[in-house]
Amino acid sequence: MKFTRFGVKLFYMFLLVSLIPSGVAGGIVYKYVSDKTRENVLGQLQYEVHDLNEKLNLLLSKRRFRVADFSSDGFVRDSVEQLSYQSHEHSQISKELNHHLTVNKMDLDPDILEIAILNNIGTVIASTSQEQIGKDKSDEDYFRGPFLFQEQRGSYFSDALRPSQDQDSRLELVFSSILTDKFFHKPLGVLVTKVRGEILQDILETIIEQTDNEGFLEQQYGDDMYIVNGNKLMIAGLSESGNFSFGKIIETIQVSDTLASKRGFSGICDNYRGVKAFCTALYVPETNWVILSEKEVEVVNLQLRKIKYIFAISGGIALLLTFTIALVVSGNISVDLSNLLSGIRRVTTGNLKQPIQIGKRNDELKEVGESFNLMIYRLSESYESNSELKSLDKMKDDIIKDVSHELKSPLAQLRLALEMWLKWSVQEGEKVRIDQDGEDRFIGIIRDNITRINDTVESILTLADIDSGNLDFKKELLPLGVLINQITAGQKLIAEKKKLILTSVFQENLPDVLIDKTQVAGVLSNLIDNAIKYTESGEIKISAVRRNNDIEVAIKDTGIGIGLPESSQNQIFERFYQERTNSQGVGVGLSICEKIIKAHRGKIWVESEGKGKGATFKFTLPIPLPSI
């Protein structure tokens, strides 16, 4: 196929007009998805550290209240006041005080490691650890701190790593409060409680396992979440890799800057493993700690990379389709223009025997070709008469000039029509691209594929939302049978058009379920619509029964069935999976149904005995537990 210069220009123009807008739109959409994903990740990390900070504050407040409560104990205060006037270390008062601390106070809290009382010079005069009695603790911060901050009338807190016999070190949380006499509130000493540091780790693990009333995880935590104290020691943490570096010194920039500036940080950084990550650091002034939550950039980019592949594949398909259409259209026009120009050149040389060959067209080019061929035929007849040969020669010259002049107008109109075609405007009376339904077949192809690409993009955004946790489920207690009847009533007209029987059967006294009405209605509509679409005759039956603590819904049809082996049939719920390559849609409807049902703590599956034997789609919804 030889292209004319006009055909080449038309080909390039078609590609530019088609590809530039789609390329720009694809780039904008990908940029938006990328920025939104990164924004959501940082927002989630910020929520995590603030949530943990609130729980730590609650824990520390409870412990401070405990030590303050111990220090206000009348027996403790009276005993310490009496001991301040006793010179003998092992008096009866001291024994009774130790017994009171060990028996009456230690049992109040299983996390307490030691309760000790120091006199006003820092000597341990009573303790649940007998070996500590008599030791000088005046250089410890938990002794000096309450005196330095006595005007605040609050307890003092510190953390420390202590040597241990069965492991390298253990973390202790120390709370201390001043003991005063009853009347003049003169300082008598300091009461100290030491709590096992593992309670910080317990809080982290409890947060991950904690669920709300519906049973969903409260949040999705980052790859690493840990606490660093003022000495830059990691004192508690959880990691996706399972490697928690307790007692490790964390010298990352975000930790150092946060401790120095006492302000938080949120952005991209190098974590303590030296890997690029999204990081959020929160400074806790009450403890001089830093709480950090981190998610590796590569993990976030993995999802973005999948989206990029989808855009690349979609763009490649659009490019191939556009290239093919442009090649066919410009090629056909080039062939007909070449034939027309060749015929004109033959006539100018005196060749009137060979007519112009125009393809199957119904436009101005065909009319020009037919008129030109008629002109050649009449010229040939004129040349057969010798008597009129000279006049015919002159007539030939005049006609050629007239034809050459008149060709300018139809060619100009042709170019204008083509430009209007490229702008998706069909001229009145033009039928070359019109199919049997009266629609421009090329525009129809382009529109269908643009619609398909648009539907594909909209379906991806919807799944993300659900995984990040952005799709808002508005749940309410509803009778499932009423909802099924509403959906079934709307689908019966469609079923009747195909002469299908659509029925619904429910078990009596079905309990209400806690669901998002709109989302579950979408699942039911999708499954019933699929059953109607792939069933040519027979019945579609919707049923609902109670199975222990769940309600099981089944949509059974007598349609074409599923050709996959029984063990592989649930592959149809995977993204973009299509058992038949020529099926309509983009292959994500069942995947969205699965995610909605899982978000309601249910499950969905399919049962089919094979092709031509129908299929039964089933899903469950949990029955809410009665409130206590």
What this model shows, in words?
By secondary structure, the protein is of the alpha+beta class. It folds into four domains: 5-37 and 305-443, no CATH class; 59-199, 2-Layer Sandwich (Beta-Lactamase); 202-301, PAS domain (Beta-Lactamase, 2-Layer Sandwich); 473-622, Histidine kinase-like ATPase, C-terminal domain (Heat Shock Protein 90), CATH 3.30.565.10. The chain has 13 helices and 17 strands. It has helices spanning 5-71, 74-83, 92-105, 141-148, 198-209, 253-261, 297-348, 364-383, 389-422, 441-469, 480-497, 517-533, 589-599, and strands at residues 112-119, 124-127, 156-163, 169-180, 187-196, 224-228, 234-239, 265-270, 276-284, 289-296, 475-478, 501-506, 513-516, 539-547, 550-556, 604-607, 616-622. The strands form four sheets. Strands 2-1-5-4-3 form a five-stranded antiparallel β-sheet, sandwiched between helices. Strand 8 and strand 9 (276-284) form a beta hairpin. Helix 7 packs parallel to helix 8 and helix 10 (441-469) packs parallel to helix 13. The longest helix has 67 residues, at 5-71. The two termini are 81 Å apart.
What's the short story on this structure?
The protein is 48% helix and 19% strand.
Q: How would a crystallographer describe the biggest sheet? A: 5 strands, antiparallel
Number of helices: 13
Outline, from the CA principal axes? Answer: elongated
Low-confidence segments, given as residue ranges, are: 211-219, 398-421, 424-429, 441-446
Chain-wise SSE layout:
Elements: H1 5-71, H2 74-83, H3 92-105, E1 112-119, E2 124-127, H4 141-148, E3 156-163, E4 169-180, E5 187-196, H5 198-209, E6 224-228, E7 234-239, H6 253-261, E8 265-270, E9 276-284, E10 289-296, H7 297-348, H8 364-383, H9 389-422, H10 441-469, E11 475-478, H11 480-497, E12 501-506, E13 513-516, H12 517-533, E14 539-547, E15 550-556, H13 589-599, E16 604-607, E17 616-622
Parallel strand pairs: 12-14
Antiparallel strand pairs: 1-2, 1-5, 3-4, 4-5, 6-7, 6-10, 8-9, 9-10, 11-13, 14-15, 15-17, 16-17
Helix pairs in contact: 1-7, 2-3, 7-8, 7-10, 8-9, 10-13, 11-12, 12-13
